[in-house]
Amino acid sequence: MIIRNLAGVTLLEIPEDCKLENLNLPNADLAQADLEGMDLSFANLESANLDGADLYWAILYSANLTRANLENALLCGADLKRACLRWANLKNANLSRDNLGGATNLSGADLRDALIEGCDFSGAEYSTKTQFPLGFTPARYGMTLVAEK
Fold first, then answer.
1. Which stretches of the chain are DSSP H helices?
2. CB neighbours (10 Å) of residue 26?
3. 3-state DSSP call for residue 79?
4. Would you place residue 6 in the very low, low, confident or very high pLDDT band (cuts 50, 70, 90)?
């Protein structure tokens, strides 16, 4: 599999027999990567550069995104259940509903100390187990509380 940026430039080549789940890419430079709809469950993307990446409908269940740069990333409809986003840069990221009205799922995610300036959370779902930056009020950002599944 070849991961390209939005301009078509190859960023990473992954052997076809390699599953993306459990992918171990700390500090990877995936700026502008086209990862739409990819299953990156349990991936280690700690401190990865995903600036401007297309993660529309991506599955990032239990992914480690600690200190990742997700500035300007498109995360509409993404599954971020139980993802670790501590100290992540979500400045101007889009976590709003997808074009079919599906919500970005942040149930049980850890967003403590994340940079969220300009981040669009409208319509995103969270649970009582979701952890937010100090002083964050989900309702103020148009988020919806859902039962933990």
1. none
2. 14
3. strand
4. low
DSSP 111: -
Q: In terms of Cα–Cα distance, which of 29, 26, 55, 54 is closest to 40?
A: 55
pLDDT tens, position by position, 68-82: 999 999 999 999 999
- Segment 9-35 shows an average pLDDT of 79
Tokens 């991506």 belong to which residue?
Answer: 58
Residue 17's pLDDT is 61
What pLDDT, on the 0 to 100 scale, is given for residue 59?
Answer: 96
**What does the pLDDT read at residue 149?**
64
pTM over 0.70: yes
Closest by Cα among 70, 123, 117, 75 to 95: 75
- For 140, phi then psi, to 5°, come to -60, -25
CA 139 to CA 65: how far, in whole Å? 24
Spatial distance between the Cα atoms of 139 and 40, rounded to a whole number of angstroms: 28
Main-chain phi, psi angles of 62, to 5 degrees: 55, 25
C-alpha closest to that of 76 among 119, 28, 22 = 119
41 residue type, one letter: S
Residue type, 95: L
- Written as six digits, the tokens of 1 are 């599999």
**Residue appearing with tokens 């990819």:** 38
